[in-house]
């Protein structure tokens, strides 16, 4: 019997990230080999026509695993019975803005979408990409009856950026680098942590060049989004789509033995991160669930940086509480 298609809803389908993401999903990269997908594209009414144009191109690409495409301007219909929700639709920042500056403009999108997700399938997995991603995920989760562990926000792009920088510095391929962590917020306060990082299974901790770490690596990764906007003239799109694919693929298919990844998930209080905040942690995935890697010793250097990013998340939560969004 042919396998049942997995319903994947993508919001902001006519945007830059949507355009890069949809073709990879249709090619089967999101869930794994041989899994058919049905795409549901959600857009605001003014952009529905553009999303329909993308749907025509998806048809023209003759993807063998693509079961069909539906285009919606109504969140309840787009999420009804869905198995994977990729919440991309939101305004990107422009030069000189911080992602938190988008809170008021974008926060309002995620309350009704959280409510609409109540109609999703029981196994739904939600990834928020639209910025500020962590707090938007908190808004969606707080307004939904879907279990909290199904809501995540994307720090996989930051994780991949850190892998890229390390591979360049050490002259290795990304696949040789493991155990990198992004802690906290998908913002300039995030903490890319290499304390436990290994290359070819050997820890680099004691050999790391401290001035490179503090003056180049950490700020470079944390501010890479702004660097892309500056150089490219628009916010990251294909790399963001690739990270969204990686995030869901890992969530569904698991992490590599002996490695972990980074994802922003609802905190259970681990590592002193207040319960309920959507914060990035080192995580493993198995059987369709993320779990925080436990028992890592946190140095004073790391503690200070984790706390700074988590404090920013606390402030963002207070701001959206004031806006009546959570
Ligand atoms: P874009 O402006 O090209 O596309 C956004 C799309 O969302 C538009 O087509 C718009 O019509 C649509 N949209 C707006 N409100 C919507 C709603 N309520 N429902 C459905 N669709 C809606 O932007 P983009 O470059 O694709 O970026 C999208 C978001 O992703 C931005 O907020 C950006 O900052 C963020 N982003 C996050 C990461 C990350 O790592 N978490 C990385 C890159 C970009
Ligand atoms: C990124 O990290 O590239 C995105 O969050 C876009 C941005 O505003 O930086």
From TrEMBL:
Where NAD(+) binds, per the record, is at 12-18, 106, 113, 129-131
Record-listed substrate binding positions: 93, 99, 131, 161
Residues annotated as the enzyme's active site? 186
EC numbers for this chain: 1.1.1.37
Q: Which UniProt keywords apply?
A: NAD, Oxidoreductase, Tricarboxylic acid cycle
- Domain Lactate/malate dehydrogenase C-terminal per the UniProt entry, residue ranges: 155-320
| Annotated Lactate/malate dehydrogenase N-terminal domain residues | 7-150
Catalytic activity of the protein: (S)-malate + NAD(+) = oxaloacetate + NADH + H(+)
Family, per the entry? Belongs to the LDH/MDH superfamily. MDH type 2 family.
Function of the protein: Catalyzes the reversible oxidation of malate to oxaloacetate.
From the Swiss-Prot or TrEMBL record, give the protein name. Malate dehydrogenase
Species, as recorded: Actinomycetospora straminea
